[in-house]
Amino acid sequence: MEHKIYTLDRLSPLLRDLKAKGKRIVQCHGVFDLLHLGHIRHFTSAKKHGDVLVVTLTSDRYVNKGPGRPVFNDKLRAEVIASLADVDYVAINDAPTAVPAINAICPEVFIKGNEYQKEKDFTGGIDEEARAVAGNGGIVEFTDDVTFSSTKLINNFLSPYPEAAQEFLRGLQTRFTSRDIFDYFEKIKKYKVLVIGEAIIDDYHYVRAMHKSPKETIIATRYESEEAFPGGVLACANHVAGYCEAVDVVTFLGKEDSKEEFIRKHLKPNVVPTFFYHPSAPTIVKRRFVDPAFLTKMFEVYHFNDSPIPSDMEEAILRYLERVLPHYDLVIVTDYGHGFLTPRLRECIAKGASFLALNTQTNSANFGFHVVAKYPRADYVCVDQIEARLAFRHKDVVSTDTWKDIIGEMFGALNAKHAVITLGHEGCLSYDGENLYKIPVLSTNVLDRVGAGDAFLAVTSPLVRAGMPGEAVGFIGNAVGALAVTIVGNKEAVEPVSLLKSINTMLKG
């Protein structure tokens, strides 16, 4: 069966030769994570449309079916498919869509299962595939056979989720369908969003520890490489820009060495920044020294001036915000406590925003001094458990009733309508003013936690604005977090296709 498995580059000329001999090429494409009777009948039906059946499958890194998927790696999936008599060739497609495989194979017939005729294509992938097939002179056909679901089988019998998550998802599947969730994502597309906060460059220097210096009590390291990502408010804007069509940013840069060219290059096309320039502070850079073996962070250095911004700069920002705030459906504030958002700016934002989503981040530069209670108002508050406890002076939290007390204080102080408290490996708490929901963590596969909280805030804020129920908000936030912690730093945003496919997978019971 190994003789059936080819790379696309090697397979393409072989298929051209077969076509020249009059052979009709048929292609099927998918993940095929758990091969079952439905797949086998699908391939059998597909083979009837031509002479040569080629099955292409999605490589592991592009399987957008949520945490823990695929269960079986692409080499194993290819080997199993190649063992089937009806399958003539198998190739792994290292791309997020089938389009490169279609362009390489140029099938006369591209076969999809009948479930794709019934389900709404929320990612646009099927239309994209159809255009590629037509562009290569082929047609799309749908099989009409019994439908089985690998996802349902895996969720029910080989679940990649922790036990608490499995129990939660079984209950959630009785209360929400994928369509219920996707309708809210449709609602937020037209939102005009303003994101306010500090621009931060996350600078990763990869170094390997050598040994303790013989003359000093320090560990010497060997430099290997480095890379930089747009962090802070920039990362938040890039996340939300995948879900809302118009996203503006207000932030400050250093007048000297502003990093503006880097920043503009790394913002999505639908993110429009307004920069104010600090005369005596650099653009904030947080340089982390990281062991590349396990992405272990050894130490970090902040390049910044966290004194309050100058009064003339504050005045210019105030005048700008007073003019533009009424024009936005949603204002998201990511306040890292580095001197940008002064008391006057906080007051202006709270007064002028029609809907305000807020996070005040506790970090090593402001621990204990920077809390959400500094703001006079927020409609949606999303903070981690340490930030919530610091804000309302609760040293120890051990019970649900204590969390209810903290959230009650938060609602009273900020006149909030919705609050989420993230709990790290324990998931999150979501409160909608009436009910407190505990949503478990949806993945234990953590590559890098940097930026996960920003992604959670960015994606859930417009959904809260659209009226999504509290339990669903917490679920979506944890789904976002499960994807975000698999990304190094803020190298990529959590994109809608990955998130929506993950949600669809988890809600198939």
Quick recap:
With 509 residues, this protein is of the alpha/beta class.
What is the element layout, followed by pairings?
Layout: E1 5-6, H1 8-20, E2 25-30, H2 37-47, E3 52-58, H3 74-82, E4 89-93, H4 99-105, E5 109-112, H5 115-118, H6 125-135, E6 139-142, H7 150-157, H8 163-172, H9 178-188, E7 192-197, E8 199-212, E9 219-232, H10 233-240, E10 246-254, H11 260-265, E11 271-278, E12 284-291, E13 296-303, H12 311-324, E14 330-335, H13 343-352, E15 356-360, E16 380-384, H14 385-391, H15 400-414, E17 418-422, E18 428-431, E19 436-439, H16 452-465, H17 470-484, H18 496-506
Parallel strand pairs: 1-4, 2-3, 2-5, 3-4, 5-6, 7-10, 7-14, 8-12, 10-11, 14-15, 15-16, 16-17
Antiparallel strand pairs: 8-9, 12-13, 17-18, 18-19
Helix pairs in contact: 10-16, 12-13, 16-17, 17-18
Search tags:
2 domains; UDP-N-acetylmuramoyl-L-alanine:D-glutamate ligase
